[in-house]
Amino acid sequence: MPGLSRGADALPRSTPEAQGVSSAALREYMEAADKEVNTMHSFMLVRHGKVVAEAWWNPESAEKAHVLWSLSKSFTSTAVGLAVEEGKLKLDDKVLKFFPEDVPASPSENLKAMTVKDLLTMSGGHETEAKFRDTGGPWVKTFLAQPVPHKPGTHFLYNTPGTYMLSAIVTRVTGQTVLDYLKPRLFEPLGITSPEWGTSPQGISIGGYGLSLRTEDIAKFGQLYLQKGQWNGKQLLPASWVEAASFKQVPNDNGRPNADQSDWAQGYGFQFWRCRHNAFRGDGKDGQFCVVIPEQDAVVAITANTGDMQKELNLVWEYLLPALKPAPLPENPEELARLKEIISKLHVPASGRDSGGK
User: Which domains does the chain have, with CATH numbers?
Assistant: First the structure.
């Protein structure tokens, strides 16, 4: 799109039609998202490795970092994968081995059995999350004091403190925060500049949330996973890790009715959700998404401030998925101009500016 300054590390751009996407269909999606999602902040579609559509709702912009909330978890998982590849830890390592000074006086058998893999799959065995901010104590110690009534690996509970523990484990075995550990291994190779990640009172990257990045950074991250860990001819992340992280490791429907219609009941990987249409994603509170659609060679990055995240994904499936054609389409400059005109007028209502850009 015109008017954007892009560095040498930017993703390549293309007209939608050259990558088999209709500008008219994209315009219809943009109009629907603007009308039906309260409130969109940004959108980017990458097809065949090229950005074919990008939009920011004013005052959001291409260069503004956006709070990712729990989409941060997928980056923490990536740090674990890199540490595993470097031989610094194993998936079947017991969690307690990393924190001998914080082990409760009489740890339960379930706590003693909890592994790194159990944390990755949100199946550590808790019935409820530990409340870090309520206790005021060290976060690792608070986590390890939380009762573990279920056998690890048998009970799915979305558990943000568990992701903090993954971050703490990476810090324990590398001597670096997840943010610093990922800078030379992920962020810098992808051309992601100035990432910010909040820390606990103990100085450890929060892991489960707290990362802020630009929309294109989110898209690059998805593209890396789509390319099975390869970037500019280099294997940044093992393909085996990408496959395992994005695979359905555990069920998460918990017997919910109409699970086939929910993108929150298709299974869970290593801090990635499975989606309908054989896709997978990282996501975060208020509508932050990095959706990877391997069968269509596509990545969708969205930031928002909405209470209806399923609606956001429904619009992707309803409008974008059918628009992804297997071959290039005839160029359509008239429809492309209409798309750009729609994008140029997008803005965030005052009520939708609470969460997001920094």
Answer: 17-64+215-230+262-349 (3.40.710.10), 65-213 (3.40.710.10)
